[in-house]
Structure formats: C-alpha cells, structure tokens
Amino acid sequence: MKPHSAPPQGKKAHSTYIEDVHSLKPTDEKAQGDYSGATAKTNPRESSCSKIDRNAVPNARLNDLEKDLGLVGTQYNTCISILFVGYLLMQIPSNMLMSSKKVRPSLYMSVCMASWALVSACTALTKNYVGLVMVRFFLGITEAPFYPGALFLLSVFYTRKEIALRISILYSGNIIATGVAGLIAAATFSTLDKTHGLAGWQWLFIIEGVVTFGIAVLGLFMLPDHPLTTRWLTPEERQLAHDRIIRDTVNSEESKGPVAGLKQAFRDPRLFLLAFMQNMHLSSCSFNNFFPTVVGSLGYNKTITLVLTCPPYIATCLASIVIGITSGRYNERTWHITGCMGAAVIGFIISCVTLNTAARYISCFLFASGAYAANSIILGWVSATLGQTPEKKAASLSFINVVANASYIYTAYLYPKSDGPRYLIAMASNAAFGFAVIASAWALRFWLQNTNRKIRSGVLPGADEGLLYAY
Q1: Nearest-angstrom CA–CA distance, 464 and 461
Q2: 314 and 181, same structural domain?
Q3: Which of 175, 72, 88 minimizes the C-alpha distance to 132?
Q4: Residue by residue, what is the 3-state secondary structure of 273-338?
C-alpha cells in the first residue's frame, strides 16, 4: 500500500482525512471491516463526495425503416451488429488515454457524446442499406468512450462496497432510456410521421440527436475528472477522494503508465474469467436490440407494442437499484448474480415453452429484470478484483467491455424474422448464456477464496494491509 498523504498543517487529521486503517481500534466494527477488510464510511465527509440513441433503430423498425431503406434478409441484423464493431475498436485505446491523465475526462467524454449525437441525427439522412451501415459503424466509434470511461471514473471515486450501487444507477440510466425510447417513438410516429416529408423514424433520430447534444454540453460542467484534479471539489475533498480509494485497494501497486497497466491486466488470469462471465451476461441480454420485436410477438398494434416495452424496463430499473444496494451493504456478489441470472433463465425458458400472451409478457419482466440487474455486480467485481493501479483498472474494464460487447455482433443473428413469434433459438441460447454466468461466478468465488487463504497464510502479499478479495 502507498502511504497516505499527510494532512495540511494546522488542521487535525481526523477532521478531514480518514484515519489510517492500521490505527483504528479492532473493536470498532465499521473500522475493522468485513470478511474482505472493506470498511464502512468513517468520515461523514465521504458521503458528500458523490441510450436512447442506440435504441432508436429497433424502435424505427416498427415504423417501416426496413421498407423505406429497402432492407432485405439479414441486412437489418447486420445494421444492428455493425455498431458494435466500431464500438469495440475504440474502447481500450480510449480508456488508456483517460487513465494516462493526458486529457480531462469531463471534456473528452462530453466531446465524444456531442459527436455521437451528430452521427445519430445523421441517420435520418440515410437512403439505403449502405448508408445505414456506415452511420451505425461511426455511431459505435463515437459512443465507445462513454460507458467504459464512466465505469472507470466511478471506480476511481467509489470503494468496493459502494461501486455496485453507483454502477447500477449508471446502468439504470440505460435501462430507463431503453424503456422511455419506446414511448418517445410511439409519440413521434403518431404525431410527426410524414410531417415535412420526413418519416416518423427520421424525426425520431433528429429529436434524440438534438437532446443528446444538449446533454453533452451540460456534461462539460457536471462530469468529474480524476480525484486529484476535479475542479468543483475543494483541495481537501480531492485528497480525501484519492486516499480513500488507495486505502480500499487490495495489493495496491505503483502506477507506471497506461501501457504498463495494460500489461498488468493481461498478466492477471482472473481478467479472462471475468471477461467470459460478462460476455455470457451480455449475450443473455441480446434481447435488448430486439425487445420491441419480441414484445410485438404478443400480437398488438405498433403503438401498444411500443408502450408495452416500457413497464418491464421500469421494473428492471428498480430491481437493479435494489440489487446494487444489497450487494454493497453485504459486500456480496456470487449469490446476487446467481439469483438474478436464475430469474432470467426462468424467463427465457417460459418464452421457449409457451405462446400464452400473459405468460410471455411476464417472462419479459423476469428475463429483463434478472439479466440487467446482474450487470452492476459483475462490473463492480472487476473493479474490486483488478484495480491494483488506476491504469490496470481502466484497461481491465475496457477489455472486459470489449469482449462482452462482442456478443452483440453474433447474437444479432439469433433473431431472424422467420423464427418469430417464439424465437426459440434465441431464447434457448439466452438461457444457456445465463447458466454460464452463474457457473463463472461460482468459479471465481472459489478462486478468490483460495487466494484469500494464501494471503492470510503469508504466501501472497496483502495480509499486512488487512485487505482481502471480496466475493
């Protein structure tokens, strides 16, 4: 562990800084920490340091996008998957750049967001399959820095017990956007279709692009930078934000730059198990890009179908927050992932075995809530396990996000129109993916338990800090 910086002269240490973990009394449960050495907040000042665009194409499909652009066969599926090619190419370089401290994350991420808003709006200008493929590819490139970058920023401000809830709040924004996107699409298609010679799906891209650009401007003033360089924190708060993460990091190492961090990440075999787990998880979430189509299999008209996509996502948002809170409170991951993905698997199986309208709609709640709620737990686990340096943490998060999002390239072809309304291949595959997530979580749990035993016995470094890996 790196030594903590000394408090400013003339001020008492305990008034601004968290006490050194070694000096705390072992009888103080909050200070002593739980089974992994993770502690609750001991300084009251800690408490104060706190995709709609992508969903437009699945919704536009219900407003004759395929007919207007002349898409045939699997061309729509290709348009879905091509976004993730561009999305994957930029993630690792982007996070390495952010962790290098050569750019201000607030400025960098806001510019990227404004760029994807412009590209998304340009989708309204496409006239054919080639144009849509090109726009989707560049949309992926411009979107790539944001999500892994946001995960990295959260990981450098929040501890192991705090990170899952914060990621679930971040991811809930995506979930709400997905649910609200259907309502926005329904309103747009019913009021603006054919207005000024533009189809409803074209207006949808224009409106969402303009709104996204406006939010990007706000991001310039609201997003943080690194803990020690965030402008709207006081000097004392900056130091506190930095020190508390150092104190909470298992086997903290000296930072040696983004390239060294990338090498550190690839030398850690746990990276690849976590990457497989998250790949299987996002594979099971492939229904996202086809959710309006899946809900459409219930047999209702376009407007009702779009409205019906919203309630499952509202339930999913609430489930994600609850799971994030309980995972953080109990510093537990394996059983939470097992419960979430178990519910998702049941939902997928129901969709496989029945065409009953009520049962299939209930299954949408089960697999959406279960699968999405596990996301914050897995990504929080990445940060807690592979965060020995900020650079390693950034490289690990971006690599795992790349491997995970690669699933959207092949899973897009699991939903051919000819397989509706049951989509048996897709739902059966999703159930298998969910089971693989559960198996991976238990494998990692046993691995970390074995590592902790070695730390306690002195075979591995880390026992002197009183910190162990959480599972």
Answers
A1: 8
A2: no
A3: 72
A4: HHHHHHHHHHHHCHHHHHHHHHHHCCCCCHHHHHHHCHHHHHHHHHHHHHHHHHHHHHCCCHHHHH
Is-contact 226 237, C-beta < 8 A?
no
- Lowest mean pLDDT of 282-291, 315-324, 425-434, name the range: 282-291
Q: Which domain holds residue 71?
A: 40-232
Helices and strands per DSSP (H, E), number in the chain: 21, 0
pTM for the whole structure: 0.73
Give the CATH number, domain containing residue 298: 1.20.1250.20
DSSP classification of residue 159: -
Q: Say how far apart CA 470 and CA 163 lie, in whole Å.
A: 12
Tokens of 129: 């399959």
Domain count of the fold of the chain? 2
**What is the distance between the alpha carbons of residues 59 and 295, in angstroms, rounded to a whole number?**
11
Q: What is the pLDDT of residue 52?
A: 62
Is 12 domain-assigned?
no
Cα 286 from Cα 167, distance rounded (Å): 20
- 216 and 273, same domain (yes or no): no
* 75 and 218 housed in the same domain: yes
* Per-residue pLDDT tens digits for 407-443: 877 887 888 878 877 788 989 999 999 999 999 999 9
Structure token pair of residue 16:
């601004």
Residue 151's contacts (CB-CB under 8 Å, 6 or more residues apart) are 167, 170, 379, 383, 397, 401
Confidence at residue 47, expressed as pLDDT on a 0 to 100 scale: 46
Query: CA–CA separation, 288 vs 58, rounded Å?
Result: 9
Domain assignment present for 17: no
For residue range 191-234, what is the model confidence (pLDDT) as tens digits?
888 888 888 888 888 988 898 899 999 988 888 888 888 888 88
